[in-house]
Write a structure and sequence with these properties.
The structure holds two protein chains of two kinds. By secondary structure, chain A is mainly beta. Chain A contains one helix and nine strands, in the order βββαββββββ. The N and C termini of chain A lie far apart (50 Å). Classes of the chains: A mainly beta, B alpha/beta. Chains A and B meet through strand 5, strand 6 and strand 7 of A and helix 5, helix 6 and strand 5 of B.
Amino acid sequence: MGDLKNKVVITPTYPTVGQEFIKWVVVEPGLFKYPLGEGEKPALLGGRCTKCGKIFFPKRSLCPDCFDDSFAEGTIESIALDSRGIIYASTVARVPSPVGIKHPYAYGYVDIPTNKIRVFALFTGAEPESFISGQEVELVLEPVAVNKQGQQVITYKFRPILERRY
Amino acid sequence: MRDVFIIGAGMTVFGKHPDRSLRNLGYEASLNALKDAGVRPSEIQAGYCGCALAPMLQGETGVGANAFWEVGIKGIPIVTMENACSSGSTALREGWMAIAGGHYDTVIVAGIEKAVMPKGTPLNVGAVELEQRLGEIFPGTFALIAKKHMEIYGTTTEQLAKVSVKNHKNGTFNPYAQFRKAVTIEEVLQSPMIADPLTLLMCCPNSDGAAAVVLSCGERAKKAKSRIKIVGSSLTSGMYENLRDFTSWEMERRAVNQAYEMASLGPEDLNVVEVHDAFAISEILHYESLGLCPIGEGGRLIDEGITELGGKVPVNPSGGLMSRGHPVGASGVAQVVELVWQLRGEAGERQVPNARMALAQIMGGNKEADTRTCNVHIFMKE
């Protein structure tokens, strides 16, 4: 048996507003709201063209279709994407991640039918091999790695849902 | 447009060259191409060099100018260009356009790269795309494509393994290949899983190496010992349609069709083909985009042996990226060097008999689950 005394067990600590000692950073600004307020549900932040209604994630500066059509920039308004989707494709990465994610880890793409958009997604909440195309998943915000400054990196992931909606 | 010919070709052995500089590799390939063409450095009017990763991996810019000067090429317009895995083929297209458009008569094109990483280190291709910053890895993208192709068309892991087996076998006949060892289906399937369902032996290696060709036209080309005509050249970029079908690249089919149209021919006219087999699934998709078989039937094509040496349309007789190796910016030119040798009948044990029409396809750069760039070139024996 190994020397358990000297083993450091790291329990993920979820950041709490107002507590200075908890350090975290979001993986990329603008992808989702964080931290969440009381009772607030996680959501990806996208953009919608006010002219044609096309939705982009992440939000972009102009709508490539409408700008080309009329040379009018129109407006891309911010929207929160539906938190539920369906896996389009998934894989399990079994090599070290350049961005410090512990392997093996599952990822792929999730279609969000409500918004007619497909997003890149890490998967969580079940065995990496268990994620299959057609499976219904929902959004969660979770730590994914610890950066060089020792901060927890918060990202978005999708996890299985049991209750069917589509 | 003027007719443009490849009159000289040369390359280094691909593999691990830890003690050689980029310019030294470029020197050898350029010298081989010049000697092969019988062209003196002072006859070269412009130089185009494909190199994708040197600024990031070696901290070196101006690789083309550095390498071409080693063979005494100086004073002329020289550019080094980055276009992901299509860097070398993009340089070829620039050289072709410059001569076809009447700007120069004789130019040199090279692809030079050192991409071998310390053992166990993934290739640093930068993390500028959102997906990469979120956790995407290069093989994973192709794993997703493979999963989807298997789901929709019933393609099997055995068929993926067969692509690797074929290309490794071809590599045993190529003295310029990084790997010259045959593998079995079982060995491919039992090699370490990288990203489900792609195993290590279904992925191309990272490599060092360089390749070069000399292009010319008119009377100068007639004086050369051999002329291979460039009859088709295309370059496309992605449309980045968010809900695109992962099992086929529209941007690749577009590049293929443009090249076929320019050359006034179709897939049935091809005798030998080099494609970008970065991953086993890629080659299956390229069969379909090239029209060697209908969409979804790439797995059947490998089963039937049509793309093997001795088959109706041998694909990657060189061993492809998987066996010859993949020095990113050099691969696009190395494919062309192989096809020049094939069309001349100089390919030794891997020679495709009586090859007259050849096609090279290469693509690269993941972006928004699509691909940034794709080059197709078609060559004809004069």
